[in-house]
Amino acid sequence: MKxxxxxxxxxxxxxxxxxxxxxxxxxxxxxxxxxxxTFTGVDGVETDVSDASRIVSLTGDLTEIIFELGLxxxxxxxxxxxxYPPEAAAxxxxxxxxxxxxxxxxEAVLRFAPTLVIGDETIAPEDxxxxxxxxxxxxxxxxxxxxxxxxxEKIDQVAEILDVSEAGTxxxxxxxxxxDAAVALAATVETQPRVLYIYxxxxxxxxxxxxGMPTQAMIxxxxxxxxGADLGIFGPGPVTPESLVGAAxxxxxxxxxxxxxxxxxxxxxxxxxxxxxxxxKSDSFxxxxxxxxxxxxxxxxxxxxxxxxDLYPELAG
Length: 317
Description:
By secondary structure, this protein is an alpha/beta fold. It contains 15 helices and 13 strands. The strands form 3 sheets. Strands 8, 9, 10, 11, 12 and 13 form a 6-stranded mixed β-sheet that branches. Strands 5-4-3-6-7 form a 5-stranded parallel β-sheet, sandwiched between helices. Strands 1-2 form a two-stranded antiparallel ribbon. The longest helix has 22 residues, at 165-186.
């Protein structure tokens, strides 16, 4: 995904929250001192990591992984997109946050006296990362993943950084099994519906997510056609009557919080062009918490299974 689209996606994730259930998370704290090692981030910077006792996580998906790996007790600061698990959301609730990761200030991070900061390519501005490193703080920047395989790679990388390979393997295997089960279930359906993901923040912001977005991985993983990508949209694109007609979605997927901003699904349906889609004519709308649906974190396989069952009701039961 191009960096511009990564930054757009990061900005959109600012409003993401998480409410869907997951398998049990653990917050068991690992020993703070870990074996010294070097990790090379996606930005090419080699980071020496030897102490994971005070972690600041800059994205919600990475926070979820850290907690699932058993080091939630070592997380001292998070960004505002961290809303899951509840123990991590509590950090936000009590103000232990660096704010918005795409508008990051060095002071907001340094106040936690971190021994390790973990983020991804969406973190900005770059000057803040430079200043944190200049202050002697180890900062690891990972690739922002947009595929199901990438979600597994992300788990592997965080486990490597935190020196918890056994927990990482167990988590990776569990998530991979969840994904495989969902994909296999979806593969039993012969007809591929055209699915369009519209990212909505209410009447004033509505975008079609196309190729290169995490939603493409979810839609195609569910054995459906990503109508936005098929239309030729890369990244986020505008919602217009023309684009809706061209996409011709059989199903429209929407974020729960955005529909709340509209005041309900009926208000969203008043957008020009929506009524002309096959999805509207068959009243085929699916609404999910956006972080659960496209964060590609440890719950990705569970989210995909839910999506498959909602997309193909005949598979339920």
